[in-house]
Every structure is written in structure tokens, then in C-alpha cells.
Amino acid sequence: MAQAKLPRRKIAAYFAEQLLAGHDVSKQVAAYLVESKRTREMSLVVRDIEAALADRGVLLADVASSHDLAADTKAAVTAYLKHATGAKEVHLRSEVDPGLLGGVRIETPDQRLDGTLRHRLDQLTASKV
Amino acid sequence: MAELSVTDLSKELRAAINELEVSGDLESVGIVTRVGDGVAWVYGLRSAGYSEVLLIETKDGVVEAFALNLNEDEIGAVLLGSDETVSAGDKVKLKGTVLDVPVGEELLGRVVDPLGQPLDGGPAIKTKQRGLVEREAIGVLGRKHVHEPMMTGIMAIDAMFPIGRGQRELIIGDRQTGKTAIAIDTMINQGRQKTGVVNIYVAIGQKLSKIARLVERLKEEGVMDQTIIVATGPSDPASLLYLAPYAATAMGEYFRDNKKHALIIYDDLTKHAVAYRQMSLLLRRPPGREAFPGDVFYLHSRLLERSAKLSDKLGAGSLTALPIIETQAGDISAYIPTNVISITDGQIFMETDLFNQGIRPAISAGLSVSRVGGDAQTKAVKSVGAHLKLGLSQFRELASFAQFGSDLDEATKSQIERGQRLTELLKQHQYTPMGVWEQVASIYAVNSGAFDKVAIAKIGEAKTALLTRLWTDHKKDMQELNKGDEKITDDAPVAKILDKVAKAVAKGFEG
To answer: Which residues of chain A have a CB within 8 Å of the CB of B45?
Structure first.
């Protein structure tokens, strides 16, 4: 029987709610994606789950910088994110990328704050002085 | 070459660095998931609005797009530039505005693309104001009835299907029937008669060589200074073809809203509908009749509704529209032609048969109509041209009878003869728009019977001779007549002059 395609947003909302309630439904969702031949959408589903979690107050953020961040900087970033997004809980995933030259880049599921030197230089190149 | 100064350069660099926007806040970003055929599908950006501009950060710089499909899981956006540099995974930001274009006097005399960028090799266009590409049409209370004439300079139109300022009059016909020629003559006439009306010509997917020729011609005629040309070629993306009429209308609205009068020519809306069909199909909107999307009527109705005559309270400016539609084999009952016919305030129908018979402009007297222009017609032209349309339509009907060669009574014969003379009279070469006095004098000469003995083949020559004689001998009266405020009655002094000169001229062409 042909089934209507379930929107990713609904899958993500279900996953997030189950996860917050303490149930791991990843196998179930994975099985659904395989069965409905939507495994190609996997990375988007993961992003949607992150966005759904953020809507429910649990924020996963990627922080990239040129050097390892000190603990107090991480605390400051966490505090900032809590303030800016209204999240109750913030999980940081740090990444070191020397190519950024300096500053930090914070990426949440659907937002970004790029304060790196690399970004500024790119902007300067794009403005074609 | 200007000397490069290191201090100047460093100053500029410093200024550029200072200008760099350093946003201290989180900004919404999305990701391009698929791209192709000028359409990008974007994940994220849940706060995007309809028709909002998106900035796609590619390796080679920022490419703009606008959001047209807001789905549950993704956004369908149409790219305003080439899709070659955009690739899946590129980050997308919101610009925070809907599309707008520069508007103002600075655009006069320029050739621009639908985003307001110059195409004529001239300097960058810096205007004080910008206008929204998609804007709501003015409401009922902001409008006034159409009452001032928009003279096209084409006798057949001004006498039979007068167009008023603020009217939307469709020019419709097959390919190669002289549709664009009418529009161009109308633009030229605005310069010749010094009406002060601003011309805006929108080329939608027209050959660039044709646009170049048009610009040359307008410069020759000296009307380029009061003209804006919004040009898109066949190789431009469909999104630009789709935007062109809306952007040009925004430019026209500036003049309308500033107590001025503007004339806008959409050449042509058939191609516009085709560009929109392409975009819609690529955006996976369901196709309807002739594969056009469901909102193709709204596409044109919302565009043409912006052409209006404003109320005195709003400055009494106007925007007159002459949309052009190309038909296939004279089929005016196809989808797009019927739509636009029902939206506009009348149509000028061009016929291939007439064109091939040498009757140019090839305007069909039976199928053409102007629904609101009557009030706007110049009094002088109205008084002499009142029965022209009826006479001409009846003549065409009688003429088809007469082909069978049966004996005709005198009344019918004379009607046919008069019709042939009128048809001959209304022939007009391209690039020769006529003033009010020329139109009135020519029509009066034929209607009064003064030219009844002139051979039909010589009507054109007789007309030219009449006009030359009138201008040399009665210049003042003709200048007065050119104002067109007075009705021409049989006992008016100017009627007597016309009668006398016409009879005198006719003698030279009898036989």
C-alpha cells in the first residue's frame, strides 16, 4: 500500500520527544527510513532532530576555533547561547581548525555566528576593494 | 591613467575594513540541498518569507535568489544569477528584504536589467529611492476615471480606439504583424508632441540585436532622454524574464506617484507567461491548462492592475500600459490571450491578412476596442472620427459581398468607395506619428466628401499635399487646431479652411 511521505519535521519531532522522555528510538527511525527508501535524507533528518531538540530547550552547538578553547571561554559561549536562544541545556561540540586564524564560529542547527578572522578576510575579498 | 597613491589605497582599505559588517548576533542560515535549472532547494531558514531575497554563499561570491516555494521541509528558491557556481552544501542567509530596484529620474535614458544594473556601458546608477518589485496596486479611492488622452500618433488608433492616460490597452496579433511598431511609434510620438510622458519599454526575452536597434532608433528620434529600457535577452535566466515587467512597473510607479505620466510597454507577456511556466514546473507546482500553473491569471492581473490614473488627492499622475501578446495563427481564444484580454481595458487586434494586403498598421476595425478611452479622446478628433469605426467595419462586410460582382445600388457603391478611401487614408508608415491637426485635417477631408473624386491610389499623396498646404498657408490655425480642445462643427472657421484647401488640393489628384 502506498503511504503518504511523512514530513521530516514530524519524524524529527517524534524522535526528539522520545529521546527527551528517555527512549532510544534511533533503530525504529532508521528502519523507517530504510523501508521508505529515504536513507539519503539521513543527514537532513539528523539536522531536523537537532532543530527539534533546540525547540524543546536542548541545544547542540558546534564551536570551531583556531586553538583549543579555554574552559571559561566555553562557559562564556554556553552562557551566551542560553541567553540568545533561550535554551535550558547547551551541549558544545568543539572543533579546532587552524585555518580560521582567530576568533570563534558558533553553529546551532539553524543559526550561525561567525566571528572568525577567516570570515572577515573572505568578506573583505568579496567586497572587491 | 590616474596615478595610484599608496596613501589613498590604504585609506580605502581602512574604510572597507570599517564597513565590514560584524554581526554580533546569531543569524539564520540554511543549506543548499539540491540545485539545477536555475532553482535551488534550501534546507533550514524557517523564518524566510514569501518572495524574500536569499543570499547563497558560494566559493565565487554571493549569488542572490528569491524564495517562491515555502514547503514544510524545504524552500524552493529561484536564482537571480547563474547556477553554475552554486553547489549543494553552500550556506544560505536571509537578506531581510523582499526584492527592490532603483527608481527615479536617474534611470531616464538608460538601458538596465530587471535588477536595475546598467547594460549600456554607462556609469553605475545611483538613485535616492528604491521601489518594491512586488507591490500592491492602488485601491479604489486612490483612483480617478481615465480622462486625458495618450496620443499614439497613429490615426487608426487615435480616431477609432482612443487610449487614455492610465488605461491598459492590449496589442495582440500574430508574429510579424507590426505589434512592436505601434508601441515604438507611440513612444516616438511622446517625444514629437512634447507630451512629457516618460516611456518605459520592457523587453522580455527579446533578441538583443532588436533591442540595440530600438535604442539606436530612439536616440535618432531624440526620445531616448525620456525613455527607460528594461532589457532581458533569450539567454537570461527565466527568473529575470519573470521579474522584468514587475521591476519596470516599479520604475513607472515612481513617475505615477510623483504627479507625472508614464507609458509602459510590455513586449511581450506571452514570453513572460512562458518564463513563469518554466519556473513553476521546475518548482514542481502542478501544471494546468497548456501546462501553465494555476496562478497565471493572477500573474498578469496583479501586474496590470498597477497601471492606473491616480486621484487628484494623490497627485493625478498616471501609468498607462500597452501589453503585447503574440497569438498563434490568429487564435485569440488560447489561454494567455483570453486572460489578458479580460484584464485589459480593450485591445488592438492586428491581422496578418491586412498586413499582407499592405494595409499598415494592420489594425482590425471589427475586433479592436477601447473600453474606457472615449472620455479621453481629444475633442477635435472625436468630432471628426465619430463614425469612422462603424463605417470601416460596414465597408469590410460590404466589400466581401461586392467580390461576387453582382450589381450594386448607388448607396452601397458609394459606401464601398468611401470605405476604400478611409482604408487608404488610415495607412501610415512606421516612425511617422501624426499630430492632432494632421489627423483631424486628413479625416475631415475624406469624411466631408472633398476627396470623393480623388483616385483611391492617390489618396496618400493627396493627404500629404493637403497637410503641406495647410501648414504653409494656415500655420496659426493649424497650431490652434493641434491643441484639439475645440469640436469641429461644419460651420466652424477652421472647418471652412479645411474644406477650401481640401477641395483645392483634390483637384490636382482627380481622375
So the answer is: 110
Contact B112, B228 (CB under 8 A): yes
Grid cell at residue B128: 535616492
ipTM over 0.90: no
What's chain A's Rg over C-alpha atoms?
A: 18
Contact between B268 and B274 (Cβ < 8 Å) = no
Contact list, A84 vs chain B (CB under 8 Å): 25-26
Q: What is the DSSP letter of B283?
A: T
Other CB atoms within 10 A of residue B177 CB: 27
> What's the alpha-carbon Rg for chain B, to the nearest Å?
27
What is the chain A residue with the closest CA to B44? A110
Q: How many CB pairs under 8 A join A and B?
A: 56
Nearest Cβ partner for A47 among B25, B43, B45: B43
The pLDDT profile of chain A, 129 residues, written as one tens digit per residue, is: 456 788 888 999 999 999 999 998 889 989 999 999 998 888 889 989 999 999 999 999 999 999 898 999 999 999 999 998 889 999 999 999 999 888 899 999 889 998 889 988 888 887 765
Per CB-CB distance under 8 Å, the chain B contacts of A126 are: 61-62
A-facing residues of B in 11-40 (CB < 8 A) are: 12-13, 16-17, 19-30, 33
Mean pLDDT confidence for B266-275? 97
Residue B133 and residue B126: Cα distance in Å, rounded? 17
The residue in chain B having the minimum alpha-carbon distance to the alpha carbon of residue A61 is: B26
Spell out which residues of chain A touch residue B22, defining contact as CB-CB under 8 Å.
115, 120
Instruction: Pull the grid cell for residue B78.
Output: 529561484
Average pLDDT value over all residues in chain B:
92
Across B87-213, the runs of DSSP E, i.e. the strands, are 91-98, 100-103, 111-112, 129-132, 170-173, 198-203
Q: What residues are paired with B56 via a beta bridge? A: B63, B92
pTM: 0.91
Q: How many helices (H) and strands (E) does chain B have?
A: 16, 16
> Using an 8 Å Cβ cutoff, are A107 and A115 in contact?
no
On the question of pLDDT at B360 being above 60, the answer is yes
Verify whether the Cβ–Cβ distance B12 to A129 is below 8 Å: yes
Q: Which of A58-62, B200-204, B409-413 has the highest mean pLDDT?
A: B200-204
Residues B247, B266: Cα–Cα separation, whole Å: 11
- Looking at residue B1, its pLDDT comes to 44
Cis peptide before B114 (omega within 30 of 0): no
Neighbour tally for B50: CB within 10 Å: 11
Q: Is B306 a catalytic residue?
A: no
Segment B100-122 mean pLDDT? 96
